Sequence to fold (1477 residues):
Amino acid sequence: MSKRSKTVKITMDNKVLQVKRKLTILQAAECNGIYIPTLCAHEALTPFGGCRMCIVEVEGMRGFPTACTTPVEEGMVIRTHTAQVQNERREILQLILSEHTSSCLICGQKDECREYMGTIRKAGVITGCRYCPNDGQCELQDVVEYLGLKEIDYPIYYRQLRVEKEDPFYDRDYNLCILCGRCIRMCQEIRMADVLAFKQRGRQTVIGPAYNRTHWQAGCEFCGACVSVCPTGALSEKARKWEGKAEREEVTTCSLCGVGCQVRLLIKGEKVIGSLPAEDPLVNDGQLCVKGRFCVTELVNNHRRLRKPYRTQNGAELQISWEQAIELAAKKLSDCPAERFGLLVSPNCTNEDLYVAQKFARVVMGSVNIDTTARKFYGPGFNAYLNLMRMSVPLADLSKASLILCVGLDTRFGRSVVGVQLRKAIGRGAKVITINPRNNNLTMIAEKWLQPAPDEMVHLLRSLVKLTEKKGRRTMMSASRRKRGDLADELSQVAEMLGEACSPVILVGSEFLQRRESPQILEAIGKLARNTCAGVLPLPAQSNLYGSVLMGAYPELLPGGFSSTDKGRADDLSERWSADIPTFPSRRSAEALLWGRKLKVLYLIGVVPPNREPHSDFTIFQNIYPSGSPGQADLVLPAAAFTETDGTSINGEGRIQRVRKAVHPPGEALPDWEILCRIARKLGKKGFDFGNVRQIHKEISRFVAGFGNFAKPRRKASPLLIEGELRVVRRKSAGKKRADKKPPFMMNVSTVEHIYRGFPLTDWVEGARMLFAEETVDVSPEDAKKLGISTGDEVVVSWEHFQKSLLARIVSGQQRGMLYATLRNGEFIEPNPHPVIMRKKDV
Amino acid sequence: MNSLQKAKQEARRKWDLLKNSKIPIIYMGTATCGRAAGALEVLESVKKILREKRLKAKIVQVGCIGPCYLEPLMDITMPGRPRISYANVNSEKAKKIIESLLIKNDPQTKLAVGHFGDESDEFTNGIPRFFDLPMLKPQERVVLRNCGFIDPQQIDHYLANDGYLGIINAFHKGWQKVICEVQEAGLRGRGGAGFPTFKKWQICRSSPGKTKYLICNADEGDPGAFMNRSLLEGDPHSVLEGMLIAAYAIGASQGYIYIRAEYPLAIARLKRAISQMREYGLLGKNIQKSGFDFDIVIKEGAGAFVCGEETALISSIEGKRGMPKSRPPFPAVAGLHGKPTIINNVETLGTLPNILRNGATWYKQFGTQGNHGTKTFSLVGKIRRSGLIEVPLGMTLRQIIFDIGGGTRKPFKAVQTGGPSGGCLSEEFLDTPVNYESLTAAGSIMGSGGLIVMDEDTCVVDVAHYFLDFTQQESCGKCSPCRVGTRHLVEILERITKGQGRPEDLSKLQTLGETIKRGSLCGLGQTAPNPVLTTLRYFRPEYLLHIKEKYCPAAVCRELVEYRVVPGKCTGCQRCVSVCPTGAITGPRAEPHNLDPTKCIKCRACYEICRFDAIAGDAIVIRSRREVADEQTQ
Ligand SMILES: Cc1cc2nc3c(=O)[nH]c(=O)nc-3n(C[C@H](O)[C@H](O)[C@H](O)COP(=O)(O)O)c2cc1C
Ligand code: SF4
Ligand code: SF4
Ligand code: SF4
Ligand code: FES
Fold:
């Protein structure tokens, strides 16, 4: 075959064009600025050829081929809008519209309507005259306009389908659906979630999960990808329904977990009305999870956002001005001795906020008592977790891996962009193995699911470590030959697979992080990775855990991640800051410094006081919402959310990414760094005259490598390269207490991990309540049957002299006798898991 | 090759043994058509009679031989005598025939329909030759040559009748020559469009890639069509051999048979045949030491019409929803799992062994220039002799309908060719030769071979409505012209049959139909309006009568007709009384009956059953509400 040139010559609308081979006619037209109306085509999806709007005339081809499906060929002569084509399009469009409530499209009064009737659209009707939520942003409207269609020659069929509103975040009104199949292709091709499908045939054709399952049952991740591509109002976001068109957009980094997706915020006036994935190949590659897609707007727009500072006095809230607030804070702080001051900051804050916060503690207060809530979340495993972060590889490595091992990972709602990568990898031929005591959507797609009981996790991982030790290869083989039960067999298979895999990756989720043995599990993962030359990628729940370490927001760490016991570094730092800085009392664990002592002033930035937290004489509460329990805060300072502030944040892979201010904070709220600086200045401290974030960033760059270019941060993934270590208290292993009889249930507790600035998303985002567990306990179907429990029932779980009532959820594929509770911040039982008794609550 | 040759010899020996049997042989047609007529019950009673009378006879179950209106068919061969066929056999009749023939050696000439001897002898005197029967005489049996003669469950029967000779010849020729031979024979796809088979194969053969697939399209979704089913039930090995030949020609090593689950008998026969092929070394690796590997998997479809369309069929095999895709790429270039794939119809494949066995020149003796060979049709509707027929292409519709089918009882009105995607042709087309081009020119299609004959009791608007309703429900829903357009067509037609048609409806039907044809993605939509467009073209006055006069000349459209008993004709036989579901007809025996129009639901049962044409459908004139109001004010 002769060498084919990369381009072909075609004639389109009498213009001779040189276009790439392999393009479709539609793509060729788009490249050359020729408009062809389309409804079912979408640049991210495979061509469908269903709507027939894009028909064109091609010389020598029978009938009207569709531009979106027909590839260009050398010498093709194409005409895109001859009278005949336009007529045909009009005919077909009429047919489409005859299945669609279309008063908003062809009504003679539509212009007047647009002008005068805007206000009554708040009614909760989404079909009918001018009530479509998509009005003004509808691709169908655009095409109608382009073809100048004024009336429809056919009777309109209203399909009388029930509007589906029961699921969180988006409504489905298939009466408006034109069956373009974009949502299905999105769900199948890009998300690979396979939730949606065409159902029925002929006039009954509709979209939905097959076999009449609900979206929930079909495994929908509520990622909203389908909503984004719907050209009509059939799929519409509940929260954005009546917001209309965005005026501007801003790309920023989502701060709701450590993946650090790039999101495109849609802004109207001073309001973020929506968030869509940014087309950024590095992290999320045009995808988002339910949090980034739907939770952001509801979270930042809630009417209960803090707008003004106030103090509480005798249980009453007293609004005060910023001046008064700063003055009060300064007064309390100036009276506070260094060792009785504590500053807790959220790992959701930006690097710049975290940097200023630790500088504030060290310079202004002369105190080492700075910490983040991550310490509580990770507990004794914190340092081991950071050690894994030292070995981390970029997410993109999943595309090279032939084997991916997921430990305690769930990607259904949170981290669903990672789930997409996993499914992509499987599609490529990679194998996924998941180790998880619990059943989730990964277990369905994984090649192997190892389901150890929670207290067998360490044992299992350690066995894998042994089996993969170089010298142990042979013993491993003989061990497997010796037939030691199914699990042993499985393990040696997994070990073998790991040994043979090419660039395997271990993804670390958070299922086991709060169990008693989490440090051992994390260490075993580390060893396993070393044995098998696997990359590790821990996927932290906190958006800027990495940054909090690098900024030195811990007593043991200085900016740059140096150990605070490193005298040289400490001296260097005090010189550059021209201030004395306290050294870390080396023999005490950081935890003891802050958590568990009575303080004089406790300063909480993005932290919500948990019930059993250190009491203090005076608590400053700086956040975006009021604290749940009044009286816990003496001074409340309104802060900016991540959509309202500038800065940088470092995701789990170690990419420094920009957080951009999209709108002003509500009311008088201010970014954290600014409040801190104001107080510092009030106290007469130097080194806090930052006029903007850029200046803070510049100062950070003097201590931390990789910083410096604020406008365009270096977004290269890098493992956590730090010298310092965190000190953790290893809880004493509980020892094997001999129970008299076998406890009926083992209760495993996790804290809610979908948190922003201390608040579980479930507090402020309605839809999240339907998806994320909180104060719930997952029970196996067998146990539930025995106790007569069904999902949604209240049950009482008791142990020793505690008892707690929780909402039961029946989860299939869960071992009998195991309970998994998800509790709000900070409630633990020791040891975790713990034997408990459970009963149905009497009504 | 020795083993197959040995097997062949053995098969031939057995076959000869059967032919020269010392005991009588009873052939029962037990294909689905026979079974529907009660063949299995007859078979049971035959067995019982033989047991009771202690008669020795061999029973051979065969496939459909063609004249379905004669089912159940029972044929008997007495030792040394030609086979004699008896039609519409029931248990008593079977008993009578067996007793007289097997015991008294009396062939019951009056009951026999035909014999298979070369000419009549004293034994068969008075019985016509079966193949001289008017229904059979004009036919040429190429594809169906074995149907009704061999036991489809016995590979030996097939082998003994030159089975698998075609593939052996193919192996000798080499694949290039196989394609040439098929080109030379001028074989065109029998699944509908009549695309030259060799051309498709060539494209597939020259498409890059090692993995290629062959799919046998046995979806047969047209209502009223059963040619493929009959062939698969009556001679499965011929189709399987055809698959071997096609796969060898295109270089496919994996084959699929996509067959609807509603064909359980055909599936069972295929399964058995495939396992026999494995046993005889006709499937698997290095078939007959040719170096050619091939295997076949059966995929059962859920019976959606659109799944007969190639790309939808491929999706369905892939486990996805059967929804057509735009082409290019054509399946021959990128089909199943993205690999070059050939889809051939059952009949196309069934023809191949004949071509490879006898050569292209032999095959070309049938048919006409550009339309060589034979084509099977299922001849149904208001026709005297319905059934499965095979005729050379180029025969006229008149020959098929009147010579073979024996014409209609009431005056002929129209014939629908090509199933629901075809068109309805009027009397003036009776002399059109049946070939791909002329049918297309008439606005219809050849399709897979359904021929539905209609007489004057058929209302064309109702027929168009029936077919459109079918395609409308079977549309996959993907593209808007087909999904929505057919729905509008149906509603307009429905309106017309209800007497609510408007004058502008005709032009609406026309433009809409054309839009659907031009604008649809796949063959289903592109042909769906054919029944409307052809009836509009050839029976326009009938539409106008419905619209303007609110009159249905065939007295079919329920809302436009009222039934009554014609007193002069009614003999009071009470047949109608027994079928009327609402008891609207009353009257003492032997006296003219009375039909109570208020009880009548116009189900037409009495009309169909009356032997004296004593039920009349009178047109009733429907007036609009406005007209009624106008009258009242006047
Ligand atoms: C809606 C539709 C239904 C079809 N149904 C059948 C069918 O039932 N059987 C069949 O052989 N071909 C059917 N076809 C034609 C096939 O798509 C295809 O052309 C044929 O199988 C090719 O085989 P051939 O080349 O041997 O004719 C159908 C086509 C369309 C558009
Ligand atoms: S929200 Fe996501 S997972 Fe759910 S149906 Fe839509 S695309 Fe599929
Ligand atoms: S719901 Fe929207 S995206 Fe999905 S098929 Fe209907 S119109 Fe298209
Ligand atoms: S023409 Fe009909 S059957 Fe074919 S793709 Fe379109 S909607 Fe589906
Ligand atoms: S855009 Fe091409 S058919 Fe819909």
